[in-house]
Amino acid sequence: MARMFLHIAIVILCVTFVKSTSQDSRLNGIYALVERRLPFHRDTFNFQLTEGDSDSFIISDSAREVSNRIWWCRYIGPGHVFINCRPLPLQLEILELEVQSSLIDIISILYTTAFYDFEQWSLLLDWLSLRGVNLPLAWVGNEHFIVEVFKELGLNDTSISDFLSGPAFQAWNRFGNIQGSWGGTLPYQWIADQFSLQKKIVQRMVELGMTPILPAFTGYIPRDLSLVYPDASVVKATQWSSFPSSLTEDTFLNPFDPLYSKIQNSFISKQIEAYGNVSHVYTLDQFNEILPSSGEPEYLHNVSAGTFQSLRAADPSAVWLMQGWLFLISPDFWTLDRISAYLDGVPGDDNMIILDLFSEAFPLW
Ligand SMILES: *[C@@H]1O[C@H](CO)[C@@H](O)[C@H](O)[C@H]1NC(C)=O
Ligand SMILES: *[C@@H]1O[C@H](CO)[C@@H](O)[C@H](O)[C@H]1NC(C)=O
Ligand SMILES: *[C@@H]1O[C@H](CO)[C@@H](O)[C@H](O)[C@H]1NC(C)=O
């Protein structure tokens, strides 16, 4: 990840930045945040940005004082989650704070946001920004590309709808745990609306100096793809959480099949065309609470190698981000040999980020 150290002379707010945006637009994003959340103080803030060379995160005593006030600002109001900043009754003072832009803070945004509108997203993104989150998941709009890609391959609406689950179930549908009508058929209008919403979300993330983590093609496909491509190398995922086979056991296209790369390229190219060159980090989980069809180390290696190659072919700077949750939840399957085989499919040591979820209780790293 890009390493850059920033000194920011600020009043009250702590905001993080990434290298990719110009200095002016980074500051515009912070001023816009102040305007949104502390409108009575919009003329009181003066942000400056300078580059330094330190490699560590330093927070000075005066900065802590700033933090305390941010805390106060965050938790005031009726909600226990969102910022509800009020005009500060204090005399504002100039304080200095250093923020390292390479801090990686990630938040998983899947279960609760299926019906958020942009106002709610805007509030959430400002809240993330105030907490220093600079690498948020940006899953919204995924299904727009899924549908486009499968249509391009010759699948009809029925075959595609048979694969997609309702909005509130997308978290599991996207990971290949479930398929089909969970909570009803996924309305195409929802897909279109989410795509419009995501354009605003991505733009706002970039304004706030964040790098969105975008989705990629995982390998899970409508069952009917095999009818259109009878030679495709496909396997069935395992049943998830004892739900009926017809609603789980998603079809998985083996990533070493050339068709996989073709789909990945189409998915990622369409995404870049829609959002611009805003990120090279892709979230991609294949065996979340389900097992690969074979435990043979060579197979596992081939799966991840094919997946990574497809990402790099579509985006030469691609970084693969995955959750480590699978290793924790299925320890009988994921022996050290198999973990090693799967992870070693990705060359080098800075091409993959593994989220050690739940590491406060069961650290895996
Ligand atoms: C959609 O495609 C599938 C698979 O090719 C086919 O079986 C089905 O009849 C098609 N449905 C429609 C409505 O065209
Ligand atoms: C996208 O960004 C990467 C580096 O972040 C750069 O190498 C590449 O040329 C950019 N592509 C376009 C089309 O701007
Ligand atoms: C793994 O990939 C290699 C090279 O493409 C191939 O020869 C081999 O049969 C594959 N093995 C498995 C188990 O998929």
Brief account:
The protein has helices spanning 23-37, 61-75, 118-130, 142-152, 157-161, 170-174, 188-207, 225-228, 258-275, 297-314, 325-329, 336-343; strands spanning 5-10, 48-52, 95-100, 214-215, 220-221, 234-236, 251-253, 281-283, 319-323, 352-355. With 365 residues, the protein is of the alpha/beta class.
Walk me through the structure.
Pfam families: NAGLU. Residues 1-20 form the signal peptide. Residues 110-365 form the Alpha-N-acetylglucosaminidase tim-barrel domain. InterPro entries: GH, NAGLU, NAGLU_tim-barrel. This protein is an alpha/beta fold. The chain has two domains: 2-99, no CATH class; 118-355, TIM Barrel (Alpha-Beta Barrel), CATH 3.20.20.80. The protein has twelve helices and ten strands. The strands form three sheets. The protein has a four-stranded parallel β-sheet with strand order 4-8-9-10, covered by helices on one side. The chain has a three-stranded antiparallel β-sheet with strand order 2-1-3. The longest helix has 20 residues, at 188-207. The radius of gyration is 22 Å and the shape is globular. The model is unreliable at 1-23 and 52-105 (pLDDT under 50). The structure holds 2-acetamido-2-deoxy-beta-D-glucopyranose (3 copies). One 2-acetamido-2-deoxy-beta-D-glucopyranose is lined by residues 256, 296, 298-299, 302.
